[in-house]
Write a structure and sequence with these properties.
The chain is mainly β. The chain contains 1 helix and 8 strands, in the order αββββββββ. The protein is globular and about 40 Å long. Keywords: Signal.
């Protein structure tokens, strides 16, 4: 009897570990107004923090656009390769305590990432005080 319980517990534990959601990977961003894909973001981990960089622009207006509105060391840097998600930490089922950059206006916002109903839809929220904007990114498999 104890052996069966141990086996069941082991199987349950194994499946719960396998189903742990991870934001790591490639994500397609969707334009709020048109509903069309805009870019591909690669989310990765470095030194225990979560980062995201633009690896592809879908239908860019120019071949090698620069972040003209950005400030500091990101000013006039190529959009492709630009780190836009910076320094998030996992807290239960939410990634937070970092920032996200909007390369269109050069502004940086506090950021929170959270899965929607499944692990293929990521809720990306940028906020400033009580004001926020939410996008939904789709996982690329």
């Amino acid at each position: 009897m104890n052996k069966n319980i141990l086996v069941l517990f082991s199987v349950f534990f194994m499946f719960s570990c396998l189903s742990a959601q991870s934001v790591l990977g490639k994500w397609k961003t969707i334009d709020d107004s048109t509903g069309k894909a805009r870019s591909i973001i690669e989310i990765y981990e470095s030194d225990g923090k979560i980062y995201g960089k633009i690896i592809e622009l879908i239908n860019p207006k120019s071949n090698n656009p620069l972040c003209k509105q950005c400030k500091g060391d990101k000013k006039n840097q190529p959009i492709i390769g630009l780190i836009i998600i910076d320094g998030l930490s996992k807290n239960d089922d939410v990634y937070e305590d970092g920032t996200i950059l909007n390369p269109e206006n050069g502004k940086t916002y506090d950021c929170r990432l959270k899965f929607e109903d499944d692990e293929d839809t990521l809720q990306v929220r940028g906020y400033l005080a009580f004001f926020y904007k939410t996008q939904y990114w789709k996982r690329i498999k």
